[in-house]
């Protein structure tokens, strides 16, 4: 219980600082929130391959967070870090399949991804290919998490799928804010869904 209060408090401090300051609070609590989740997964997990891979994905996420919050734009480096995190998470999810693949899920996710990408495309410029690759990888990660749940019907699988979906929502909001125009609620919406996604992935470790 206490660890989740600490995670929630840290996340709220970061989001509040994004709007009101101080700057040191913004820089401290963004990565600290994920570090707390990482420590939780590491300490309370079962020690199996799934836990180890999720922990590795959280480490990549911390690196990505640091790149994205630096004063000088490190968007591509942050994109690469989270791309690696999604690849790592995918290994964990695909390793849990317990039945044949459900093919309607990738069709649904792929259709949604194409619509979002086409909406972003006019504003992407030289980032068109990197963003396309990123979209494909995060959709594949979400598909893998969905298959994990659909083929096992476990609480851990449901938490993983919900976390992947939240990650998809968070990254979509981030892309829309960056490439289609800023909106005031962007930071709060992006970071809330992001922290929820990572928390749910950690919960999927704890439920095993």
Automatic annotation (TrEMBL):
Keywords: Membrane, Transmembrane, Transmembrane helix. This is Lysoplasmalogenase. The lineage of its organism: Bacteria, Pseudomonadati, Pseudomonadota, Gammaproteobacteria, Vibrionales. GO terms for cellular component: membrane. Belongs to the TMEM86 family. It holds the Pfam family YhhN. It is found in: Membrane. It is a multi-pass membrane protein. It comes from Photobacterium galatheae.
